[in-house]
From TrEMBL:
Gene3D superfamilies reported in the protein's UniProt record: Aldolase class I
GO terms under biological process: ketone body biosynthetic process; L-leucine catabolic process
Species of the source: Nocardia uniformis
InterPro entries membership: Aldolase_TIM, HMGL, PYR_CT
Name of the protein in its database record: Hydroxymethylglutaryl-CoA lyase
Keywords: Lyase, Metal-binding
Family classification: Belongs to the HMG-CoA lyase family.
A single GO molecular function term of this UniProt record: hydroxymethylglutaryl-CoA lyase activity
Family matches, as Pfam families: HMGL-like (PF00682)
Domain Pyruvate carboxyltransferase: 3-270
Superkingdom of this protein's organism: Bacteria
Length: 298
């Protein structure tokens, strides 16, 4: 089985930090990720700098990243202005988020879920005309911090509606880390049935120690792209306690021991996690940098 690990530390990882990280450090994080073998990287977010100050230097980051054959840079986009910026900055793919509940959607994007779907349709058409790869992410697909449970029927109805714009990829996001493997299997199976032409991707947080179990459940159900953040940093600034992306290095260790091919060197990612902790001034949550890989005999 071949699996793509999509690195999100430069965007989803850093957006939740209280201190502004230097542009040069962000670029170096991306360079180190590429050196380790990661080939899809969510590098930036094109949002208003007052909303997410950590992403205010998106253009400067994209101007400084290496352009390497086979490496695809993604940018998070919320509206037409964001898409204009993304295209001018030279991203290879866009990620548009549709939030599963109105309350969280208002807090995160300033619109209802229905308005978010319409925005996605508009952005998807423009991006397709420009030749960009298009991912739509359904956020809070496993639960909302404000409205509570989100039914599988609600999520799958959203899948049906966003699939009308023919996305290249549909991602299901456990934004606050409340998902469990049984729900993952249900939503992946339902998404595959409703949108058979779209690649399936999952974004998990390990807030309650279910992220890695959910990742394996997603692969068993047919997903082949998993988001992860070096060091396990990150979260959503608009959701209480939405911390702890699954760590790229810890995910790689598990996949490697299972014989799953990713093409990524977990030792280099682990070293980057330790380096990232120095940049942030605090140890990262990932465990591989502390425990090391599987111990050699003797």
């Amino acid at each position: 089985m071949d699996v793509t690990v999509l690195e999100v530390a430069p965007r989803d990882g850093l957006q939740n930090e209280s201190e502004i990280i230097a542009t040069a450090a962000k670029i170096r994080l991306i360079e180190r990720s590429i050196e380790a073998g990661l080939r899809r990287i969510e590098a930036v977010s094109f949002v208003h700098p007052q909303r997410v100050p950590q992403m205010a230097d998106a253009e400067a980051v994209m101007a400084g990243v290496p352009r390497v054959a086979g490496v695809s840079y993604a940018g998070l986009v919320f509206n037409d202005r964001g898409l204009d910026r993304a295209m001018a900055a030279g991203v290879d793919e866009i990620n548009v988020v549709v939030v599963a509940t109105d309350t969280f959607s208002h807090r995160n994007q300033g619109c209802t879920t229905a308005e978010g779907i319409q925005r996605w349709h508009t952005l998807a058409k423009r991006a397709a005309d420009s030749g960009l790869r298009r991912t739509v992410t359904i956020a809070a697909a496993f639960g909302c911090p404000f409205e509570g449970e989100v039914s599988a029927a609600t999520v799958l109805d959203l899948v049906r509606r966003v699939a009308e714009a023919e996305p290249d990829e549909i991602a299901l996001a456990d934004t606050i880390g409340v998902g469990t493997p049984d729900r993952v299997r249900t939503l992946i199976a339902g998404t595959a049935a409703l949108a058979p032409a779209a690649a399936l991707r999952c974004h998990f947080h390990n807030t309650r120690n279910t992220g890695y179990a959910n990742a394996i459940a997603a692969l068993d159900a047919g997903a082949r792209v998993l988001d992860a953040s070096t060091g396990g940093i990150g979260g959503c600034p608009f959701a209480p306690a939405a911390t702890g992306n699954i760590a790229t290095e810890d995910l790689l260790y598990m996949l490697d021991r299972m014989g799953v091919t990713t093409g990524v060197r977990m030792d280099l990612v682990s070293e980057t996690g330790v380096w990232l902790g120095d940049v942030l001034g605090t140890p990262v949550p990932a465990l591989l940098g502390r425990a090391g890989g599987f111990p050699s005999a003797g």
